[in-house]
Amino acid sequence: MKVYVTETLQREVDIEASDEFEALSKLEELYNDGEIVLDYSDLVNTDFTSTTNSKKEINIMGEIGDFCNQCPSHTECPESECVLYRIERIIEDGFYEV
User: Fold this and answer.
1) Phi, psi for residue 59 in degrees, rounded to 5
2) Which residues make Cβ contacts (< 8 Å) with residue 50, sequence separation at least 6?
3) What sections of 33-78 are H helices per DSSP?
4) What value, to the nearest 5°, has the Cα angle with vertex 63 and ends 61 and 67?
5) Counting beta carbons within 10 angstroms of the beta carbon of residue 84, is it exposed (0 to 12), middle (13 to 18) or buried (19 or more)?
6) 3-class secondary-structure state, position 7
7) Model-level pTM?
8) Tens of pLDDT along the chain (98 residues)?
9) Residue 91: count of CB within 10 angstroms of its CB
10) How far is CA 35 from CA 11, 30, 39, 62, in A?
11) Distance CA 58, CA 54 (A)
12) How many whole angstroms from its chain centre is CA 49?
């Protein structure tokens, strides 16, 4: 079984620039030149996943009719009760890919 560890590193860097675009360009140049190297002290998150709990593909359009017969057009039911609404939130939160 394949399992995965994903580390997210992040560091705040002060850059003198006239705007955001210039600041990001300077930051990217410093990073690419090796002047900024992130290390373990920059760790902000670690995720452990496997092939069984990683993102799964689903066919949403095929599932809507089975579960949301009261409002197939997704216009009449309260959002908290609508299956389509809940599926859309799951996708937006990154738990599933379509």
Assistant:
1) -100, 95
2) 1, 2, 3, 4
3) 60-67
4) 125
5) buried
6) strand
7) 0.48
8) 778 888 999 999 999 999 999 999 999 999 999 999 999 899 998 888 877 654 444 444 444 444 455 555 555 665 555 666 666 766 676 655 54
9) 13
10) 13, 5, 13, 51
11) 13
12) 15
8 A C-beta contact, residue 11 and residue 36: yes
What pLDDT was estimated at residue 3? 82
d(CA 38, CA 17): 22
C-alpha to C-alpha distances, 64 to 5, 15, 69, nearest whole angstrom: 34, 49, 8
- Helix, strand, or coil (residue 66): helix
Residue type, 46: T
Residue 49 pLDDT: 83
- What tokens were used for 93? 């939160």
